[in-house]
Amino acid sequence: xNHSSANKKAVFDPVHSREWLRIGIVGTDTSHAVxxxxxxxNKEHPHHVQGGAVTIAYPGGSPDFGMSINRVRGxxxxxxxxxxxxxxxxxxAVAERCDAILLxxxxxxxxxxxxxxxxxxxxxxxxxxxxAVCRADAEMIAETTERAGVTVMSCSAVRFAEGIAQCLRDxxxxxxxxxxxxxxxxxxxxxxxxxxxxIHTADMLYALLGRGCRSVRAxxxxxxxxVIGEWADGRIGTxxxxxxxxxxxxxxxxxxxxxxxxDVYAHxxxxxxxxxxxxxxxxxxxxxxxxxxxxLEIIRFIEAANESRQTGRIVHL
Length: 317
Known about the structure:
This protein has 10 helices and 13 strands. The protein is of the alpha/beta class. β1, α1 and β2 form a beta-alpha-beta unit. The chain is globular. Mean pLDDT is about 95; it is low at about 1-15.
């Protein structure tokens, strides 16, 4: 195992405490790697997240996925040149020399394999969406998590938008009886159906309704997708994915007394900053704000929606 530090640019904090964490990144083929590093390492950022800094990263990259392989080098260079991040030669080198890990590889197909390589180091891990692009890989990650005894969380940042949190606080006394969510749904051949962009809206729907979907049916056209989920308690949740028109996320929440618009952009604070705060708290305390069991159900929900959009049939979870 080659743990060369020839490209080392950062001075690591020698105190391995839960007050200040060395954060490692596995996968620099997404803008999230730069965004999260900026929030953590730049104390002048208006939404700076405290508690640690990114100190080491492994680039990775998927040769058959243009949005991965065509961006990975540039983002890695940005981390090294702008933030002094050491560029490592393997995921294992990252796991060995950090306190917590952001698994940011943009390609959900490789998450299971990458996670298996770092799990036994015992560091808490955030796996960026999607956890996986099929239920089999998602369940493999869950099995590895249990075997290694590590803390793991995976979700879309959209579920932590301040507007969603505000809506949930406002409607809690009335009880949510249904929800309709919408958002952009670009398609990417290597990330089947909803796994690429639809996962954001699916995560938002679950943030509002919680677990318990029992069946899914979908309709699809060139420009749009509509997914209808029926929950075990009779509630209905819908997901609309758009490939034409606006590229905004949003939705409506139905309570026993009113229907409330969910404004994802009501606050200046970006949702990925709100999520990173939750991730850092998880790294320090071990308390997971989104249980892996819920993420597994979301993966199954998306897999069922993908099946239904191909067949037009109702798929039972």
